[in-house]
Amino acid sequence: MTNLTASRTDDLLAAAGLDPVVTRQFVRTTLAEDLTWGPDVTTLSTVPAAAVATAVVAARATGVLAGVPVAVAVLEEQASVDGVSVTVDIVRSDGDPVSPGDVVLAVTGPVRTLLTAERTMLNLVSQLSGVATLTDQWQQALAGTAARVRDTRKTVPGMRVLQKYAVRCGGGVNHRMGLGDAALIKDNHVVAAGSVRAAFDAVRRHAPGIAVEVECDTVDQVAEAIAAGADLVLLDNMTPGTMQAAVALRPSGRPGQEVRFEASGGLSLDTAAEVAATGVDFIAVGALTHSAPVLDLGFDLTM
Known about the structure:
This protein has helices at 6-15, 20-34, 41-46, 68-82, 111-141, 160-169, 187-193, 196-206, 219-228, 240-247, 272-276, 287-290, and strands spanning 2-3, 52-59, 63-64, 87-90, 97-98, 103-110, 148-150, 183-185, 212-216, 232-236, 260-264, 282-284, 297-301.
Protein backbone atom coordinates (compact mmCIF):
# COMPACT_ATOMS: atom_id res chain seq x y z
CA MET A 1 0.00 0.00 0.00
CA THR A 2 1.06 3.59 -0.65
CA ASN A 3 0.76 6.34 1.91
CA LEU A 4 -1.53 9.02 0.54
CA THR A 5 0.03 12.44 0.21
CA ALA A 6 -1.03 15.52 -1.69
CA SER A 7 1.79 15.13 -4.19
CA ARG A 8 1.02 11.45 -4.75
CA THR A 9 -2.66 12.23 -5.33
CA ASP A 10 -1.79 15.08 -7.68
CA ASP A 11 0.41 12.72 -9.69
CA LEU A 12 -2.48 10.27 -10.07
CA LEU A 13 -4.87 13.01 -11.21
CA ALA A 14 -2.37 14.49 -13.64
CA ALA A 15 -1.61 11.07 -15.12
CA ALA A 16 -5.34 10.73 -15.82
CA GLY A 17 -5.35 14.06 -17.62
CA LEU A 18 -7.25 15.80 -14.82
CA ASP A 19 -6.19 19.17 -13.44
CA PRO A 20 -5.24 18.46 -9.81
CA VAL A 21 -6.15 21.97 -8.62
CA VAL A 22 -9.59 21.95 -10.24
CA THR A 23 -10.33 18.38 -9.18
CA ARG A 24 -9.27 18.98 -5.61
CA GLN A 25 -11.51 22.04 -5.37
CA PHE A 26 -14.44 20.00 -6.65
CA VAL A 27 -13.69 17.25 -4.13
CA ARG A 28 -13.58 19.78 -1.29
CA THR A 29 -16.95 21.16 -2.37
CA THR A 30 -18.59 17.75 -2.47
CA LEU A 31 -17.16 16.73 0.90
CA ALA A 32 -18.27 20.04 2.43
CA GLU A 33 -21.78 19.51 1.06
CA ASP A 34 -22.13 16.29 3.06
CA LEU A 35 -21.04 18.08 6.24
CA THR A 36 -23.09 21.26 5.78
CA TRP A 37 -25.56 20.21 8.49
CA GLY A 38 -22.91 19.17 10.96
CA PRO A 39 -20.25 16.48 11.47
CA ASP A 40 -20.88 12.77 10.87
CA VAL A 41 -22.91 12.22 14.03
CA THR A 42 -23.44 8.49 13.46
CA THR A 43 -19.76 7.73 12.99
CA LEU A 44 -18.67 9.93 15.89
CA SER A 45 -21.19 8.16 18.12
CA THR A 46 -20.33 4.58 17.20
CA VAL A 47 -16.66 4.49 16.21
CA PRO A 48 -13.86 4.95 18.76
CA ALA A 49 -11.42 7.70 17.82
CA ALA A 50 -8.49 5.27 17.86
CA ALA A 51 -10.12 2.63 15.63
CA VAL A 52 -8.12 1.78 12.50
CA ALA A 53 -9.21 -0.64 9.79
CA THR A 54 -8.96 -1.61 6.15
CA ALA A 55 -11.86 -1.18 3.76
CA VAL A 56 -12.27 -2.16 0.14
CA VAL A 57 -14.13 -0.59 -2.74
CA ALA A 58 -15.53 -3.48 -4.79
CA ALA A 59 -17.80 -3.82 -7.80
CA ARG A 60 -21.32 -5.14 -7.28
CA ALA A 61 -22.17 -5.08 -10.98
CA THR A 62 -20.47 -5.48 -14.34
CA GLY A 63 -19.10 -2.34 -15.92
CA VAL A 64 -16.12 -0.14 -16.76
CA LEU A 65 -14.27 1.94 -14.17
CA ALA A 66 -13.75 5.68 -14.19
CA GLY A 67 -12.82 8.03 -11.39
CA VAL A 68 -10.45 5.92 -9.31
CA PRO A 69 -7.98 8.83 -8.94
CA VAL A 70 -10.92 11.01 -7.88
CA ALA A 71 -11.84 8.47 -5.21
CA VAL A 72 -8.26 8.60 -3.98
CA ALA A 73 -8.45 12.41 -3.90
CA VAL A 74 -11.56 12.23 -1.70
CA LEU A 75 -9.82 9.91 0.77
CA GLU A 76 -6.66 12.00 0.83
CA GLU A 77 -8.61 15.24 1.30
CA GLN A 78 -10.62 13.90 4.22
CA ALA A 79 -7.47 12.49 5.80
CA SER A 80 -5.83 15.89 5.44
CA VAL A 81 -8.79 17.62 7.08
CA ASP A 82 -8.72 15.10 9.93
CA GLY A 83 -4.94 15.35 10.29
CA VAL A 84 -4.43 11.61 9.92
CA SER A 85 -2.58 9.23 7.62
CA VAL A 86 -4.28 6.90 5.15
CA THR A 87 -2.74 4.30 2.85
CA VAL A 88 -4.26 3.00 -0.37
CA ASP A 89 -3.70 0.09 -2.71
CA ILE A 90 -5.12 0.68 -6.20
CA VAL A 91 -6.06 -2.73 -7.56
CA ARG A 92 -7.86 -1.73 -10.76
CA SER A 93 -7.54 1.39 -12.89
CA ASP A 94 -9.81 3.61 -14.93
CA GLY A 95 -10.90 1.96 -18.16
CA ASP A 96 -10.66 -1.52 -16.65
CA PRO A 97 -13.69 -3.81 -16.89
CA VAL A 98 -15.02 -5.09 -13.58
CA SER A 99 -17.43 -7.83 -12.50
CA PRO A 100 -19.25 -8.36 -9.20
CA GLY A 101 -16.76 -8.98 -6.42
CA ASP A 102 -13.78 -7.39 -8.13
CA VAL A 103 -11.81 -5.20 -5.72
CA VAL A 104 -11.06 -1.72 -7.07
CA LEU A 105 -8.99 -0.38 -4.21
CA ALA A 106 -8.18 -1.09 -0.58
CA VAL A 107 -7.63 1.66 1.96
CA THR A 108 -6.32 1.54 5.52
CA GLY A 109 -6.72 4.32 8.04
CA PRO A 110 -8.77 5.68 10.92
CA VAL A 111 -12.30 4.33 10.61
CA ARG A 112 -13.87 7.74 11.30
CA THR A 113 -12.04 9.22 8.32
CA LEU A 114 -12.94 6.34 6.04
CA LEU A 115 -16.64 6.45 6.88
CA THR A 116 -16.86 10.23 6.60
CA ALA A 117 -15.39 10.05 3.09
CA GLU A 118 -17.34 6.95 2.03
CA ARG A 119 -20.49 8.41 0.47
CA THR A 120 -18.82 11.29 -1.33
CA MET A 121 -16.22 8.92 -2.75
CA LEU A 122 -18.80 6.36 -3.90
CA ASN A 123 -21.10 9.02 -5.34
CA LEU A 124 -18.32 10.25 -7.61
CA VAL A 125 -16.66 7.01 -8.69
CA SER A 126 -20.01 5.25 -9.18
CA GLN A 127 -21.40 8.07 -11.30
CA LEU A 128 -18.28 8.34 -13.42
CA SER A 129 -18.04 4.58 -13.83
CA GLY A 130 -21.66 4.58 -14.94
CA VAL A 131 -20.78 7.05 -17.70
CA ALA A 132 -17.81 4.92 -18.75
CA THR A 133 -19.95 1.77 -18.73
CA LEU A 134 -22.68 3.26 -20.94
CA THR A 135 -20.05 4.67 -23.30
CA ASP A 136 -18.46 1.25 -23.58
CA GLN A 137 -21.84 -0.24 -24.47
CA TRP A 138 -22.19 2.23 -27.33
CA GLN A 139 -18.69 1.53 -28.55
CA GLN A 140 -19.43 -2.18 -28.53
CA ALA A 141 -22.58 -1.53 -30.55
CA LEU A 142 -20.42 0.34 -33.10
CA ALA A 143 -17.77 -2.38 -33.30
CA GLY A 144 -16.71 -3.10 -36.86
CA THR A 145 -17.70 0.36 -38.09
CA ALA A 146 -15.66 3.54 -38.47
CA ALA A 147 -18.02 5.60 -36.32
CA ARG A 148 -17.21 6.70 -32.76
CA VAL A 149 -19.62 7.63 -30.00
CA ARG A 150 -19.27 11.19 -28.79
CA ASP A 151 -20.63 13.10 -25.81
CA THR A 152 -22.47 16.44 -25.67
CA ARG A 153 -22.71 19.40 -23.29
CA LYS A 154 -25.68 17.74 -21.53
CA THR A 155 -23.64 17.13 -18.42
CA VAL A 156 -24.38 17.28 -14.70
CA PRO A 157 -23.66 20.88 -13.64
CA GLY A 158 -20.19 21.15 -12.13
CA MET A 159 -19.11 17.71 -13.35
CA ARG A 160 -18.44 18.34 -17.03
CA VAL A 161 -14.68 17.80 -17.01
CA LEU A 162 -15.00 14.63 -14.93
CA GLN A 163 -17.88 13.23 -16.96
CA LYS A 164 -16.12 13.87 -20.25
CA TYR A 165 -13.06 12.17 -18.78
CA ALA A 166 -15.28 9.19 -17.96
CA VAL A 167 -16.47 9.09 -21.58
CA ARG A 168 -12.85 8.71 -22.65
CA CYS A 169 -12.39 5.93 -20.11
CA GLY A 170 -15.27 4.12 -21.78
CA GLY A 171 -13.70 4.42 -25.23
CA GLY A 172 -15.69 7.41 -26.49
CA VAL A 173 -14.48 10.76 -27.75
CA ASN A 174 -15.29 14.25 -26.56
CA HIS A 175 -17.24 16.93 -28.33
CA ARG A 176 -16.48 20.53 -27.39
CA MET A 177 -15.91 21.18 -23.71
CA GLY A 178 -17.85 24.43 -23.64
CA LEU A 179 -19.15 27.31 -25.69
CA GLY A 180 -15.75 28.77 -26.49
CA ASP A 181 -13.52 25.97 -27.79
CA ALA A 182 -15.59 25.23 -30.91
CA ALA A 183 -18.62 26.70 -32.65
CA LEU A 184 -21.88 24.80 -33.16
CA ILE A 185 -24.39 26.64 -35.30
CA LYS A 186 -27.86 25.43 -34.33
CA ASP A 187 -31.33 26.26 -35.58
CA ASN A 188 -31.73 29.30 -33.31
CA HIS A 189 -28.45 30.74 -34.60
CA VAL A 190 -29.64 30.23 -38.17
CA VAL A 191 -32.92 31.99 -37.39
CA ALA A 192 -31.08 34.88 -35.76
CA ALA A 193 -28.58 35.25 -38.61
CA GLY A 194 -31.04 34.66 -41.45
CA SER A 195 -29.54 31.55 -43.06
CA VAL A 196 -26.97 28.81 -42.60
CA ARG A 197 -24.50 30.67 -44.79
CA ALA A 198 -25.00 33.96 -42.97
CA ALA A 199 -24.50 32.29 -39.58
CA PHE A 200 -21.38 30.47 -40.77
CA ASP A 201 -19.84 33.61 -42.24
CA ALA A 202 -20.57 35.53 -39.02
CA VAL A 203 -18.75 32.93 -36.92
CA ARG A 204 -15.80 32.88 -39.31
CA ARG A 205 -15.47 36.66 -39.07
CA HIS A 206 -15.74 36.66 -35.28
CA ALA A 207 -13.49 33.64 -34.63
CA PRO A 208 -11.53 32.85 -37.78
CA GLY A 209 -9.39 30.09 -36.30
CA ILE A 210 -12.09 28.03 -34.63
CA ALA A 211 -13.67 24.79 -35.88
CA VAL A 212 -17.27 25.27 -36.99
CA GLU A 213 -19.99 22.63 -36.89
CA VAL A 214 -23.43 23.23 -38.41
CA GLU A 215 -26.61 21.49 -37.28
CA CYS A 216 -28.79 20.53 -40.23
CA ASP A 217 -32.34 19.22 -40.42
CA THR A 218 -32.47 18.65 -44.18
CA VAL A 219 -30.20 17.53 -47.00
CA ASP A 220 -30.52 21.00 -48.54
CA GLN A 221 -29.11 22.53 -45.36
CA VAL A 222 -26.27 20.01 -45.45
CA ALA A 223 -25.39 21.14 -48.98
CA GLU A 224 -25.46 24.78 -47.84
CA ALA A 225 -23.26 24.04 -44.83
CA ILE A 226 -20.70 22.17 -46.94
CA ALA A 227 -20.64 24.96 -49.51
CA ALA A 228 -20.04 27.48 -46.74
CA GLY A 229 -17.00 25.52 -45.56
CA ALA A 230 -18.24 23.71 -42.44
CA ASP A 231 -15.70 21.47 -40.73
CA LEU A 232 -18.39 19.18 -39.38
CA VAL A 233 -22.07 18.71 -40.13
CA LEU A 234 -24.51 17.53 -37.48
CA LEU A 235 -27.37 15.50 -38.94
CA ASP A 236 -30.23 16.17 -36.56
CA ASN A 237 -33.05 13.64 -36.19
CA MET A 238 -32.65 12.24 -39.69
CA THR A 239 -33.60 8.76 -40.82
CA PRO A 240 -30.75 6.44 -41.85
CA GLY A 241 -31.75 6.88 -45.49
CA THR A 242 -31.61 10.67 -45.24
CA MET A 243 -28.28 10.47 -43.40
CA GLN A 244 -26.86 8.34 -46.19
CA ALA A 245 -27.98 10.91 -48.76
CA ALA A 246 -26.40 13.68 -46.71
CA VAL A 247 -23.09 11.85 -46.29
CA ALA A 248 -23.03 11.27 -50.04
CA LEU A 249 -22.55 15.02 -50.39
CA ARG A 250 -19.16 14.77 -48.73
CA PRO A 251 -16.85 16.65 -51.10
CA SER A 252 -13.52 15.45 -52.33
CA GLY A 253 -10.58 17.63 -53.19
CA ARG A 254 -10.51 19.72 -50.02
CA PRO A 255 -6.99 18.91 -48.74
CA GLY A 256 -6.68 19.44 -45.02
CA GLN A 257 -10.37 20.32 -44.69
CA GLU A 258 -12.31 17.11 -44.82
CA VAL A 259 -15.95 17.44 -43.86
CA ARG A 260 -17.04 15.05 -41.13
CA PHE A 261 -20.56 14.05 -40.20
CA GLU A 262 -22.22 13.50 -36.85
CA ALA A 263 -25.59 11.84 -36.22
CA SER A 264 -27.73 13.14 -33.37
CA GLY A 265 -31.24 12.69 -32.03
CA GLY A 266 -33.48 9.67 -31.63
CA LEU A 267 -30.58 7.22 -31.46
CA SER A 268 -30.47 3.94 -29.55
CA LEU A 269 -28.09 1.07 -29.00
CA ASP A 270 -30.32 -1.13 -31.17
CA THR A 271 -29.97 1.19 -34.17
CA ALA A 272 -26.36 2.29 -33.61
CA ALA A 273 -24.84 -0.04 -36.21
CA GLU A 274 -27.46 0.92 -38.82
CA VAL A 275 -26.74 4.61 -38.29
CA ALA A 276 -22.98 4.01 -38.43
CA ALA A 277 -23.44 2.19 -41.74
CA THR A 278 -24.61 5.45 -43.33
CA GLY A 279 -21.01 6.66 -43.22
CA VAL A 280 -21.22 9.15 -40.36
CA ASP A 281 -18.03 9.71 -38.40
CA PHE A 282 -19.59 10.31 -35.00
CA ILE A 283 -22.74 9.45 -33.11
CA ALA A 284 -23.62 12.07 -30.50
CA VAL A 285 -25.31 10.66 -27.40
CA GLY A 286 -26.39 13.06 -24.68
CA ALA A 287 -27.47 10.13 -22.51
CA LEU A 288 -23.83 9.24 -21.88
CA THR A 289 -23.68 12.03 -19.34
CA HIS A 290 -27.25 13.01 -18.51
CA SER A 291 -28.82 9.57 -18.07
CA ALA A 292 -26.14 6.95 -17.43
CA PRO A 293 -27.10 4.62 -14.56
CA VAL A 294 -24.48 4.61 -11.83
CA LEU A 295 -22.27 1.55 -11.53
CA ASP A 296 -22.99 -0.18 -8.24
CA LEU A 297 -19.84 -0.11 -6.12
CA GLY A 298 -19.60 -0.91 -2.44
CA PHE A 299 -17.31 0.18 0.39
CA ASP A 300 -16.92 -2.40 3.16
CA LEU A 301 -14.77 -2.53 6.26
CA THR A 302 -12.80 -5.71 6.73
CA MET A 303 -11.97 -5.14 10.43
